[in-house]
Description:
By secondary structure, the protein is of the alpha+beta class. It has four helices and four strands. The strands form two sheets. The chain has a two-stranded parallel sheet with strand order 1-2. Helix 1 (about 10-20) links the parallel strand 1 and strand 2.
Amino acid sequence: MYATAVCPYCVRAEQLLLRKGVSGVEKIRIDLDPEQRDVMMSLTGRRTVPQIFIGNYHVGGCDDLFALDREGKLDSLLSGQA
């Protein structure tokens, strides 16, 4: 997950993933490493955080993650069955 230290949406997204049993969320802090913002933007076409990847799948931001959960698709994505 691409994130910053003061992003409430990053915190919400990480909390959901932890509740879903994800043992550790790898965070790439673009506020500490500005070059990573360029990498994030080239991968996603977006400037905002969080930008969440599950494996190689780009989920999008916090709202996208919660939408997947509401649609019942997040669990299968996390288990590698999507």
